[in-house]
Amino acid sequence: MLFSCCSSNCKCENNCANKSFQLRPLFKTKLIKTEKCGFGLIAEEEIKKGEFVIEYVGEVIDDRTCEERLWKMKRQRYTNFYLCEVSSNMVIDATNKGNKSRFINHSCEPNTEMQKWTVDGETRVGIFALRDIQRGEELTYDYKFVQFGADQDCHCGSSNCRKMVGTSKSVNSFILHNGNSTSSQDQHDMKKRKTTSDNCIGEIIRLWDRRDKMYVPAVVHDYDEYTGMHTLLLDEETTENFDMREEDWDFLP
């Protein structure tokens, strides 16, 4: 949902109740080291339900730049990502240019949520309290991201924990070109797919890397109907042939 702040021309000035970003009420927060989730952020004062907590800021980049950076991070074996997709072709990268909001951890039962707002014609992302938050309580929101790289266990500890961080599309709704292929949805549970003649060259998939024991992204570059082999683009320059009937893979949304 997209919300809208009053513009700078609002006659209510500082009395306006619809200027969450311009007036920026700054709640005191503290960076902490958690037991299982790296750094985290806690509230150092009470925050009421619906209140603006902090803005998610960073470098605004397009989809192409985002993809290039993800490939680079993957090659360098990064495990932490601070990229937030705001809209089509607009991503906020808080990796090097951000504030404390990037340290807010995931929870399957969060106490805050991200909201997109239009402020003077520009889209901005704010984090708002879903309920009253007590002093000393860790701030969390549901990442709801599509996994890039290895699956990550969730350590949020909530009663509704989904056990894994991130989401993926059901494998049953996608079929690779000419493949009686197998894929993994729950820690490599092998499931047969139906054969289809549909061509899916150009589709993005995640492929289980047996050597590094993690999922890696790849692009279906070509298919040889005589050998039954698919050519996958593993990074910007590397291609490799695979018999997808023998691989553990899944489509990325």
From TrEMBL:
User: Recorded GO terms, molecular function?
Assistant: histone methyltransferase activity
Q: Tell me the ranges covered by the Post-SET domain, including all copies.
A: 150-166
Q: Which residues form the SET domain?
A: 19-144
Q: Where are the transmembrane segments?
A: none
Reply yes or no: does the keyword S-adenosyl-L-methionine apply. Answer: yes
Q: Which CDD domains match?
A: SET_ASHR3-like (cd19175)
Asked if the keyword Methyltransferase belongs to this entry, the reply reads yes
GO CC terms of this entry = chromosome; nucleus
- List the coiled-coil residues: none
Keywords, alphabetical: Chromosome, Methyltransferase, Nucleus, S-adenosyl-L-methionine, Transferase
Among InterPro entries, the record links this protein to: ASHR3-like_SET, AWS_dom, Hist-Lys_N-MeTrfase_SET2_plant, Post-SET_dom, SET2_Histone-Lys_MeTrsfase, SET_dom, SET_dom_sf
Q: Where in the cell is it found?
A: Chromosome; Nucleus
Cross-referenced Pfam families: SET
Q: AWS domain: which residues?
A: 1-25
| Principal location | nucleus
| Biological process according to GO | methylation
- The name of this protein is Histone-lysine N-methyltransferase ASHH3
Q: Please give the organism.
A: Aegilops tauschii subsp. strangulata (Goatgrass)
Biological classification of the source = Eukaryota, Viridiplantae, Streptophyta, Embryophyta, Tracheophyta
